[in-house]
Specification:
mainly alpha, elongated
Length: about 150
């Protein structure tokens, strides 16, 4: 589901009603939702704010939304696979984790997901998920939103 589609789903509006309410051509909205094209990040930010205001007026609490960014400056000397896709304050921690666990003969791949791959990142410890501790739903989310950093 696209970011715009998630926003529209939260409003409960049809495509036409959502497009009319927020001044978006219906065809453009359809292309965004089908991921044929993507709105610029500033449009996502403004739309998220407008949707939040709409939801507050409907009595639904506003959720904070941070538009996705795909790459950042690499801030470590020894970058790893897809390092530019990990938020800078987490790059060092991911490098250290990789150095520690990549010595394992059983490690086949490592993925990073959650706030470590968004501008909403904060300096925090991480959870370690393994095939034994992750269910199919979470695995699908990791594969769709995460960044492969090893393997």
């Amino acid at each position: 589901m696209s970011t715009v589609q998630n926003m529209r789903a939260r409003t409960g509006l049809s495509q036409k009603s959502f497009a009319d309410a927020f001044g978006i051509p219906v065809r453009t909205l359809q292309q965004w939702e089908q991921q044929v094209s993507s709105p610029p990040s500033y449009v996502l930010t403004m739309l998220a704010s407008a949707v939040g205001t709409y939801l507050e007026a409907q009595g639904t609490p506003k959720r904070h939304y941070i538009p996705p960014k795909t790459t950042w400056k690499v801030c470590i000397e020894d970058p790893f696979q897809n390092c530019e896709r990990i938020y800078p304050i987490q790059q060092r921690k991911v490098r250290e984790l990789l150095d520690d666990i990549s010595r394992s003969a059983t490690l086949k791949e490592m993925w990073v997901f959650g706030s470590s791959v968004t501008e909403g990142c904060h300096d925090f410890e991480y959870d370690l998920w393994t095939p034994a501790t992750v269910d199919d739903r979470l695995k699908a989310e990791i594969m769709s939103k995460g960044v492969k950093v090893y393997g």
